[in-house]
Amino acid sequence: MIKLLDRYFAWQVLQGFLGVTVVLLLIFVSNRLVRYLASAAAGELPGDAIITLIGLKAITYLILLLPLGLYLAVLLALGRMYRDSEMAALAACGVGLGRLYVPVMGIGVPLALAVGWLSLYGVPWTAQAEQRVLERAEQNLEVTGVRAGRFREGNGGSYVIYAEDIAEDQESMSNVFIRVQLETRQALLSAERAELYEAADGERYLMLRDGYRYEGVPGAEAVRMIRFERHGMRLERPASRSRAIKRSARPTSELWASESAGDAAELQWRLAVPLSVLVLGTLALPVGRSRPRQGRYGRLFVAILLYIGYVNLLAVAQEWTENGVIPPVLGLWWVHGLMLAIAATLLVRYLGTGWPTGRLGGEAGTAQQERRQP
Predict the structure, then answer these.
(1) End-to-end distance of the chain based on CA atoms, in angstroms?
(2) Residues 269 and 332: beta-carbon distance below 8 Å
(3) What are phi and psi of 93, to 5 degrees?
(4) In this predicted model, what pLDDT tens digit does every residue of 70-98 receive, in sequence order?
(5) Strand, helix or coil at 206?
């Protein structure tokens, strides 16, 4: 019976875990996608970089959402069993709440190991890849950042491009206007259409077709006009600017070897993610305990408040460690200890001395009291 119970509860948790995690991931990714699309519409981000950035953000979000997904899944599964009086029936058979730690940790321990690997190695990799994509997008923004009906400066303001219409592939434009600042004069170019292409040497060019070129000194009467069928314009690549690698993008091995308080805080944050799987799994059972027929979501509000407090305390502890307010030896560890202490207090309160096996104590007593009620 016990093994059957373990499989039954584990299956209930897994179903909820997959559903909750997917829904939360879609919400976070959709929100980030809207922000990226707004940046692309404003000409601040090339459109071809959005898919890559969304994929990288999805990995980061998934790592952070897996502990929450397990936490909510246990709460929902436990709430349903209390609502349907299944927990009361188990208590009458001598099986209490503590017994459910076996299937919960059967899921939580492998999940914590997987999340730990992703947090220690996947997070810095995605952060490095995101930084490279953003730097490359910034360098290419002069070309891919052009938007229909908007003026776009390029190469530090040395030229301005305007296109009335741009094809979806971002490689052809119509009704194009360009102002080029030369050493002592200006050049104005207008063309019916233009095409972007990249030469074999990596240089980028804008090929204007069927248009005019006006060249002269502003305010002077003499203006030179040339009609052309084709006119090539080389687009200068911006100077490459090397950025400092963010701490979140640094390899875990470097953080281990560093004596900096900031590096210690980042390392402990990466370790906190897999630890939170076990902490939240431990906390979910006593927090999710409710009366029969109370409802599936009876304790969900309290559970969410505890989760918000847990995450916020981790963020505060990380900042304190980074700023030297608390020593790295204390770091984020006290937050995990606090949440485990809360879980232990609730377990002792609800289950009494029988909580390790769950065969006696508060759970069975509660079931007997409820059966005596008229």
Answers:
(1) 31
(2) yes
(3) -90, 5
(4) 999 999 988 888 776 767 677 677 677 77
(5) strand
